[in-house]
Task: structure prediction
Amino acid sequence: MAELGGGTSGRWMAGLAVVLSVAALGISLVEVSAVREQQRTSVWPYLALADRYSSDGFDIRLVNKGFGPAITGHVELRYQGEAIVDAEDLVEKMFAAHADDDDNDGYYTATNLFDYEFYRTSEPSFSVLAAGEGVTLFGVPWQTDRISTRRFVDDLRDDGVEAIACYCSLDEQCWTVTLSERLARKTSQCDGLDF
Result:
C-alpha cells in the first residue's frame, strides 16, 4: 500500500493547493475593493454652475447632475471679486459701477432698477441637494418696461460675476466648482462642514 500524502507528488499537490488558495484570496480582496469603489462612485454628486437665458429671463443655477446627494458647504456669488450679500447688494453694486459710464444715457439710474420682488434667489449653503435637484442663485425676469434684461446681463458677465460652490458626498469627499471654470476640482474639505 502506498503511503497517504507521502512522496514528492503529494507535497507538490499540497504546495500547489496553498498557492492557489492564496491567489484566490488575493483576487477576492481586489474584487471586493473594486466593488466598494464602484458603489461609492455610483452615489457621487456632481454639482454644476451655469448661467443661462430662458423663457423666464436670466439666471445663475446650481444643479446636482450626479447620482447621489450633495452636501453643500459655502455657496457664494461675487461681483468684481467682492462677495455679494443678496440680490439687492448685487444690483446696487452693479448700478454704482456703471452710473458714470460714458454710454450710460440714463440707463443705470434708480428708476431703471428692477423691482426687488422679481429677483429669483436662494441660499443653498449648508444644505443637501438631491440628485437632479437645482436651485437658482440669482435670476432676473425679462423686462420690457424698464431696464433691458439682456443689457443688464451682458454687463453683469463683462464685469466678472462669479459663483463658487463647495460640496461633499456622503463619504466625505469634497469638491469646489466655479461658474467661470465649470469643472469640479477635488478639495480636502468645505469650510463650515465638519464630518
About this structure: Residues 52 and 58 are 6 Å apart (CA to CA).
